[in-house]
Amino acid sequence: MTASMRDDLLEAGLIVFDRVGFEAATVAAIRTRARASNGSFFHAFGSKKELAGALFLEVLRHYHAAVLAALDPVPDAEQGIDRLIRAHLDWVVTSRREARYLFEISRSEWGEDVRDGQRAQNARLVEGIERWRAPLVARGELLPMTPVMFVSQLIGPAQIFCRAFLSGRERADPRIEADTLISCAIRALRPLDRIDKQ
Predict the structure, then answer these.
(1) Which of 18, 50, 60, 173 has the most CB atoms lying inside 10 A of its own CB?
(2) CA dist 152 to 58, 69, 109, 155, Å?
(3) How far apart are CA 104 and CA 150, in angstroms?
(4) Are 143 and 190 in contact (CB under 8 A)?
């Protein structure tokens, strides 16, 4: 079993899940799309659910990498807020199939099998954001709050637009709202006396 066959199966799974959803997807359809034998599939994954969980972790890793790349080189408070929101919006639009899978298709019942991997990846994301954020909080440039509250204030409003876009309820590219989302996040995350007056 080569790594490329596993990758081909994951890519095929993503395409099939995106097209017909998890419930309607079959191992046969995924194998056909990947040009893989039955033996190759079951050598890589014990079931469709196992493939779905592995795919979830892979897509989550790609999303986190895109977000954390926005913090290099290390930005100031407002630049960081700006870059993180734009990174989220850009990833959703340019990786729409993966974003739909991560935010719309994935199921909580897969969670038991992937929960440890998800926790580890989420912890790495939080650590990466905290390396940038903690010194800014210490200097009074960002308001003190838990990491979960920070991310919810930062990404939560953008995610509402993104979910509407991913589901097809909204056709407009969510990036058109980037400036407003950034302005709102700055007001929610920066002390009033530290907000740059434009």
Answers:
(1) 60
(2) 22, 19, 23, 5
(3) 23
(4) yes
